[in-house]
TrEMBL record:
The chain crosses the membrane at residues 25-46, 58-80, 87-106, 118-136, 148-168, 174-190. It holds the Pfam family DUF2301. This is DUF2301 domain-containing membrane protein. It comes from the Bacteria. Keywords: Membrane, Transmembrane, Transmembrane helix. It comes from Merismopedia glauca CCAP 1448/3.
């Protein structure tokens, strides 16, 4: 990582330093962990849908996936702080729901969620948070894979929730999701780091506005 670089932003000059770049590297590492875990879990779920040992392994992969996603959401650069917090809340709801279900059910988590679609009202928030990342990346960097993932993920989850998708369609969408997620994570590894940080002058401007609004309200 090079020394601090000065850029001209929308609201003035700003610097990108080593700590900024490190946060991007951590963000991308979290995405890669999540993508790898999701890809392996998808393969195992489709290949060995009735093997209890495999399904229990998927629970571990899901937990690691959530950790990777949490790391990414802690280090992602999003201009709108409320949106950033909302995605973190979504992940929290999904993670807590998963823990509660996992502790109460005698079945492996993946099998229980699959057989009880209403659990997606809790667990599904995990993937809503992930979809938020896809949407952000699609809007900021015009990424085809994340533009495709943004509708695919809710379509699959809602389709399963309402029982309107045949098994083969669900498996196909899940496979496409896993492949595109990995494509996204790999492409992030080779993308220039500084653009991922964004225009820090915008962050500073929004922060100053927030402080000004607080002062006016007191």
């Amino acid at each position: 990582m090079s020394e601090a670089t000065v850029y001209q932003g929308q609201f003035g000059e700003f610097r990108i330093d080593k700590s900024d770049r490190l946060s991007v590297i951590i963000y991308r590492a979290g995405l890669m962990v999540a993508a790898v875990c999701f890809g392996i879990a998808t393969f195992l779920a489709i290949k060995f849908p009735t093997d209890t040992t495999v399904l229990n392994a998927i629970t571990f992969l899901y937990a690691t996936f959530c950790i990777g996603l949490a790391v990414s959401l802690a280090t992602i650069h999003i201009y709108l702080a409320p949106l950033h917090r909302l995605l973190q809340v979504f992940l929290g709801i999904g993670a807590v729901s998963s823990v509660v279900i996992g502790l109460q059910s005698s079945e492996p988590l993946a099998l229980y969620v699959y057989n009880h679609p209403l659990t997606l009202f809790g667990v599904g928030f995990t993937f809503a948070a992930l979809t938020g990342i896809y949407f952000k990346e699609g809007m900021c960097f015009n990424r085809l894979e994340t533009k495709l993932l943004t509708p695919i993920v809710p379509a699959l989850l809602l389709g399963h929730l309402f029982g309107v998708l045949p098994l083969v369609v669900e498996q196909t969408l899940l496979s496409i999701w896993a492949i595109l997620f990995m494509v996204f994570a790999v492409r992030k590894l080779v993308q220039a780091i500084d653009p991922d940080i964004g225009d820090k002058s915008v962050f500073a401007y929004l922060k100053a506005q927030k402080k000004g609004n607080k002062l006016q309200s007191t």
